[in-house]
Amino acid sequence: MRELPVAARWYIGGTALGAALCAAPAFRLGAAAPWSSLLALAALYALCEHLHRCPLVGGRIPYGAGAAGTSGGSLTGWASPVLLAGVFLLPPPLAALIAVPGALTGAAKAPSAGARRLWHAVEPALACCAAAEVFRVLGHHPLSAPQFPDLLLPAAAAALTFGAVLVALEGGVLAAAERHPPRTAWRGALPRSLAPQLVHGLAGLMMAVLWRSAYGPTAALLVLLPMCLSCWVFAQYHRERTAHQATIRALVQAVDIKDRYTRGHSERVGRASVMIARELGMTEDRVEVLRFAGILHDVGKLGVPTRLLRKDGPLTPQERRVIELHPEYGHEIVRGIGFLGEARAAILHHHERLDGRGYPYGLMGHHIPECARLVAVADAFDAMTSTRSYRRARPVPVALEELRRCAGAQFDPRMVRALAASLDRYGWQPDLVTAADPEPGTAGEEPGDGAAPGADATPETGQPAGGRTPDRGPARHREAAARDGAR
After folding, report:
1. Residues 344, 407: contact at Cβ < 8 Å?
2. What is the DSSP string of 60-106?
């Protein structure tokens, strides 16, 4: 534990002491206590913890911590019902011991593998003891035979207590060991854990009922089969999602390497796209697709010759036409990536204008896909609020005013209003990811990254980088805008 901060050592040590005090009364229960049930449940939990790492089952499920779904623990979706079955079957001190053997003998990541094992043992111990105490207080003796439907409400209360204790402990260890800000360590964790805990609680109650039935503990194992299947499906989904994220990262990194001038722009456009989509009440699945669209909107720059992206000086009409092909290049690059869905249309059409003066096809009004109209606003907003080598970032209110001025002709007014409403509610904290060290002579910007989004926008004044002079202001801005696809 020496690698851990002092606060984390005290926190884990204090939690371990609390777990030991909870379990200590177990050794005074005598031979009448259901020790055989404890040993069977502990062995089953340890088996689940080891089996879920088996490649045939689906490998290690990257499930965060525990049944709460927070970060840092070890409980899996089909081990949690075993613990909750023990909550319903055993006295609180015995319930606290179920996870200890499996956690102490299980694998743990370095560094501080010993501390992690200890934490994985004491965390569910406290949660099980608290949940079993709630179940007992609500009038159900753990040694009695559980019966439906009287046990549903007490079981739900116990399961929610189990999840709440896990969330509380996990937030504390995140703040102490990983130094998360206290205001974010617990944010949103409890609501996310409610539904999983109720499902695990129902499965645990079914196990407990079968355990005490005439069919015995063997029948209780049948409950784990659907849980095992659902966790295997979850593991496959997570692998697929991880592969999707890796694909997105690879494409974005390729664009950033080719055009370092605007690194970070794609991620910010993705974030702004999410803000607009959520303000419009879109479903989370669609919000995720639009995030992909924002991140990948300029992937077509991979097909544009680097010399054009970095050219210092006026573009010829032919070079301008090549620049304006980047949406089509981007669409070709991602056309075979099925999970992107409508994001592909956004990549192709995010430079169209409502008045038909955009490219590549000159679409007008609602002929432009909604996703493309959304990304266009996010793109232009980040362009104006990001610092460039030849101009400073515009304040958010100034950028919004420019978007409103261009709404109806260039941008969808509905998207502009949604962005403004979301910014009023949440604000905007750019990561200050700018091209502070562009290569000499770099003039390009992201599409929509001109000094202002409108076709007649006034360029910023002042000494630009790359050897430009102020007297080239309008021409310089038009060339930078054209070179990088500004509207």
Report:
1. no
2. -----BGGGTBSS----TTTHHHHHHHHHHS-HHHHTTTTHHHHHHS
Handedness of CA 14, 20, 21, 22 (dihedral sign): positive
How does residue 464 score in pLDDT terms, banded at 50, 70 and 90? Answer: very low
Note the pLDDT of residue 344.
94
Task: Tell me: do 360 and 423 sit in the same domain.
Answer: yes
**pLDDT at site 362:** 94
State the residue range of the domain holding 319. 259-483
| 348-375 burial: b if 16+ Cβ within 10 Å, else e | bbbbbbbeeebbbeebeeeebbbbbbbb
Residue 65 phi/psi, 5° resolution? -120, 110
**Coil, strand or helix at 446:** coil
413 and 309 co-located in one domain: yes
Q: Per-residue pLDDT for 318 more than 50?
A: yes
Task: State whether 468 and 336 are in the same domain.
Answer: yes
Highest mean pLDDT among 136-150, 247-261, 317-331, 456-470: 317-331
- Tell me how far apart the alpha carbons of residues 233 and 47 are, in angstroms, rounded to a whole number: 20
The residues facing 411 across adjacent strands are 407
Q: Is position 244 within any domain? A: no
The backbone torsions φ and ψ at residue 362, rounded to the nearest 5 degrees and listed phi first, read 65, 35
192 and 270 both lie in a single domain: no
d(CA 411, CA 453) in angstroms, rounded, equals 9
User: Can you read off the two tokens belonging to residue 94?
Assistant: 């015995």
Say which CATH number the domain at 477 has: 1.10.3210.10
Q: Indicate the residue among 184, 207, 238 that finishes a domain.
A: 238
pLDDT of residue 67: 35
Would the pLDDT of 64 be above 80? no
Q: Which residue has the higher pLDDT, 299 or 149?
A: 299
- Does 439 score more than 50 pLDDT? no
Q: What is the pTM of this model?
A: 0.54
**Distance between CA atoms of residues 286 and 480, nearest Å:** 33
228 with 311, same domain?
A: no
Query: What is the CB neighbour count within 10 angstroms for residue 441?
Result: 13
The pLDDT value recorded for residue 25 is: 92
Cβ-in-10-Å burial (0-12, 13-18, 19+) of 31 comes to exposed
Instruction: Using DSSP, state whether 453 is helix, strand or coil.
Output: coil
Q: Is the pLDDT of residue 369 over 50?
A: yes
